[in-house]
TrEMBL record, chain A:
CMP/dCMP-type deaminase domain ranges (all copies): 10-120
Keyword field: Hydrolase, Metal-binding, tRNA processing, Zinc
Species of the source: Oleoguttula mirabilis
Protein name, as recorded: tRNA(adenine(34)) deaminase
Catalyzed reactions per annotation: adenosine(34) in tRNA + H2O + H(+) = inosine(34) in tRNA + NH4(+)
InterPro entries: APOBEC/CMP_deaminase_Zn-bd, CMP_dCMP_dom, Cytidine_deaminase-like
Gene3D superfamilies to which the protein is assigned, alphabetical: Cytidine Deaminase, domain 2 (3.40.140.10)
UniProtKB/TrEMBL annotation, chain B:
GO cellular component: cytoplasm; nucleus
Family: Belongs to the cytidine and deoxycytidylate deaminase family. ADAT3 subfamily.
Biased composition (Basic residues): 358-369
Ranges in coiled-coil conformation: none
Organism: Oleoguttula mirabilis
The UniProt record lists the keyword tRNA processing: yes
Full protein name: CMP/dCMP-type deaminase domain-containing protein
Classification via PANTHER family: CYTOSINE DEAMINASE FAMILY MEMBER (PTHR11079), INACTIVE TRNA-SPECIFIC ADENOSINE DEAMINASE-LIKE PROTEIN 3-RELATED (PTHR11079:SF156)
Any one Gene Ontology molecular-function term assigned to this protein's record: tRNA-specific adenosine-34 deaminase activity
Length: 206, 570
């Protein structure tokens, strides 16, 4: 249950706050504002922001950038006892990579209704497959995560094949209640939703 | 036939058969002729032309376009609809009645079906049995509509002139109307509605046409090929094929790609050559102990000219900085060194004697490594090694690096990352992503500045793969906006591109993700499975080609077929 209650929520919010800070850095440096931290035994062992625009590589997502930092010092087996905190639900690609690396658990802010792999579009984390599944917990600082994305997408993407003029775009601040076809949402939970951006093609997001 | 006929003629010439016997003989001949006609009719083609077209067909089968998720899911879906037979001159009127009175009659898109169908085009179960009352209804109509002079023609029978009149009018006496899906309106309501309007109510001009509403089954969705349309027309109801495919790539797009790749222009790379290159890349990195035997080649096509942009083999076992010194990887080190210094700078360099002994040594090593890999795969699934160094990820990374290099305005890579105040170790990052060449073959293609400058990601590039990529790599292809993907071997347990979840004639059942064409994702690309056996069967590979193929080490026989390999993410 992606949006179920998260035990010890404050503890996890502490790390999600760090992920949000990373996303803010990404926004400041012209990248899709997705940030993440990997936490092993209460210690941050990897941090990442989206790097697609700088690398001209559409697969250089925040999770991968952070993994590169981790693997510089640790064997990949460390991920079995490592949790990921990421502002936006991992995409299908990252969800599969994390599963292949056997991540321990994933905490995220908002869903990704364009290409989310942990409930937004597909459920790669829990589908039948050769690797063990991993649990995901959504909804930590969801509003902040959505607002960061909106701030980014009102900008124009000059790298897109035909950039769309977005002069008349307004930054919406209203956040809609959750609509999650792929999972159950307990009524008592604060609502979590997909980032309903409906804007042009993005450079990339997490 | 000719032979038989001449033979019998000769027989008759020599032996004066009694008339009766001759007759029997002739009768048998007729039977034979009829049988042959029927046989030709069944096969649809004269025998000669069928044989001629066989090689073309087999050739085409080399590239099997993958079915999309929707094509797999919806291909056989049907829906129940009401139909009614009515005199054709009332067709417009009744259609208007339905449009005006039946709410949501067009809520379900059935544009692929004819609204009105002539009886002669309908399958028998829709027509039902002959109805004399209906036929009677048409009599006075014909009488009134026919000019008296025609009727008085001495040699014209009454029925005949009616039929002729109808033919010249080009209007069949009755038509069948597909009213609407039967869930839209109940039979009783529809019945009542129809009875209020001509021709189903009696009028001063004519008596009521007998109302008979039937429920029939029709295909719910548009056909995706002309053959399918024909089958459905025979089985259900006249169906259009509009040469479009709402559930996948447009047929002309697929055709164009298949032509580009299977009959390439001069100097352009063919699908076979590109796959061979991917194969070679995979076998090299495996030989070097870097990874499993899977490879990727990326091609750009600009103004009908192809350029090989990147070639990469799998390198998941290349040690990461954190793992260097780990004993499991040590025995591969010398193999790495030799292969890098070897002057293997082409795909078709003949192998020297010196190298042959080395190759033998490496073959033993390879066997050992393969066994090790198999064991590992069985015990630890596919986590062994660096997931980021799958061939697809490496090749996409190389394209990004090339883009940075050929950009008309310099882009300072990762400067944003540094600007954001994050320290990072470039060496460690490169070792993790491995988006730099690891051997002379990869280097040879990487160092060419042959990519069109200032392009976007891997937009419309063509990807050639030895194996169906895993979910991570499949989605990486979506993110990179690739154009065409062709792979050789399906990976039913780990592959992300095939869509079948139910066994059928197209191949083994996979996970059913069908990532190449998912409407809910923001990018779709065309994808083929390449079947080299199709080529061999067609027999149009020249001897040279085959010799060339045999010379190269290939991924084909290395791992595929091993049970444990099936569980590996490629």
């Amino acid at each position: 249950m992606v949006f179920g209650p998260i035990p010890n929520r404050e503890y996890h919010e502490g790390f999600m706050r760090k992920a949000i800070e990373m996303a803010e850095m990404a926004l400041a440096s012209d990248e899709t504002p997705v940030g993440c931290v990997f936490v092993h035994n209460g210690e941050v062992i990897g941090r990442g922001i989206n790097g697609t625009n700088a690398s001209l590589n559409g697969t250089r997502h925040a999770e991968f950038v952070a993994l590169a930092e981790i693997m510089a010092k640790h064997p990949s087996s460390i991920l079995k006892e490592t949790d990921l905190y990421v502002t936006v639900e991992p995409c299908i690609m990252c969800a599969s990579a994390l599963r292949q690396y056997r991540i321990h658990a994933v905490y995220f802010g908002c869903l990704n209704d364009r290409f989310g792999g942990c409930g937004g579009v597909m459920t790669v984390h829990s589908d039948q497959g050769v690797d063990p599944t991993y649990p995901v917990y959504g909804g930590l600082f969801r509003e902040e995560a959505i607002m960061l994305l909106r701030k980014f997408y009102v900008q124009e993407n000059n790298k897109a094949p035909d950039p769309k003029p977005k002069k008349n775009r307004e930054l919406k601040t209203e956040i809609l209640p959750v609509s999650t076809p792929n999972m159950l949402t307990p009524a008592a939970m604060p609502t979590v939703e997909v980032a309903k951006l409906n804007l042009g093609k993005p450079a990339k997001s997490g | 036939m000719e032979q038989v006929r001449s033979f019998t003629a000769k027989v008759f010439a020599h032996f004066p058969f009694p008339p009766l016997l001759r007759h029997v003989f002739h009768f048998q001949l007729h039977l034979l002729a009829a049988f042959n006609r029927a046989r030709h009719a069944i096969m649809g083609l004269p025998i000669d032309s069928k044989a001629a077209s066989l090689s073309g067909e087999a050739r085409k089968r080399q590239m099997l376009h993958l079915k999309t998720k929707e094509e797999c899911r919806l291909g056989n879906e049907t829906i129940q609809v009401w139909t009614v037979e009515l005199p054709s001159k009332h067709a417009e009127g009744i259609l208007k009645v339905i449009k005006d009175n039946v709410e949501h009659q067009d809520a379900i898109d059935l544009q692929h079906l004819r609204r009105f169908a002539k009886p002669k085009y309908l399958p028998q179960h829709v027509l039902g049995r002959r109805d004399l009352v209906k036929e009677m209804y048409l009599v006075p109509q014909a009488w009134e509509a026919s000019a008296p002079t025609v009727m008085q023609m001495p040699d014209a029978t009454w029925e005949w002139s009616t039929a002729s009149k109808m033919r010249t009018n080009n209007r069949p006496p009755t038509l069948y109307l597909m009213v609407c899906p039967s869930e839209t309106i109940s039979l009783r309501d529809l019945h009542d509605l129809m009875l209020q309007h001509p021709p189903f109510c009696s009028s001063p001009d004519s008596w009521a046409y007998p109302l008979e509403i039937k429920e029939i089954t029709v295909p719910r969705l548009a056909p995706t090929s002309p053959d399918q349309a024909k089958n459905w027309s025979d089985m259900y109801w006249p169906t259009f094929y509009r040469k479009t495919n709402p559930f996948g790539a447009h047929p002309t797009t697929i055709e164009k790609a298949e032509t580009d790749l299977q009959t390439p222009l001069e100097d352009n790379i063919s699908v076979e050559q590109a796959l061979e290159l991917a194969d070679y890349a995979g076998s090299l990195t495996e030989k070097e102990g870097f990874g499993i035997c899977t490879g990727c080649a990326i091609v750009e096509r600009v103004d009908d000219k192809t350029e090989i942009i990147a070639v990469a083999g799998d390198a998941r076992r290349k040690p990461l900085p954190s793992e260097i010194g780990v004993d499991a990887l040590n025995d591969n080190d010398d193999a790495n060194d030799t292969s890098i210094t070897d002057s293997q700078d082409g795909t078709n360099v003949p192998i020297s004697a010196n190298e042959r002994t080395k190759a033998r040594r490496e073959k033993r090593k390879k066997k050992k490594a393969a066994e090790k890999a198999a064991n590992e795969a069985e015990t630890s699934g596919c986590t062994s090694g660096n997931v980021m160094s799958h061939a697809v990820m490496r090749a996409i990374g190389m394209v990004g690096r090339k883009r940075l290099r050929v950009a008309s305005q310099p882009i300072s890579a990762e400067s944003n990352f540094a600007a954001a105040g994050l320290e990072h170790n470039e060496e460690a990052r490169d070792a993790f992503f491995l988006d730099l060449p690891v051997n002379p073959l990869e280097q040879q293609y990487f160092e060419k500045d042959n990519l069109k400058p200032d392009g976007y990601l891997c937009l419309k590039l063509e990807i050639f793969l030895t194996h169906e990529p895993c979910m991570m790599c499949s989605m990486a292809l979506v993110h990179s906006r690739v154009g065409r993907v062709i792979f050789k071997h399906r990976m039913p347990k780990t592959g992300g591109l095939t869509a079948e979840t139910v066994s059928n004639d197209t191949g083994p059942v996979g996970l059913g993700y069908g990532l190449c064409w998912r409407k809910e994702l923001n990018w779709q690309f065309t994808c083929w499975e390449y079947n080299a056996a199709g080529k061999r069967a067609a027999g149009d590979g020249t001897a040279d080609d085959n010799k060339h193929l045999n010379l190269l080490p290939s991924c084909d026989n290395a791992n595929v077929g091993k049970l444990s390999f099936n569980s590996i993410h490629v």
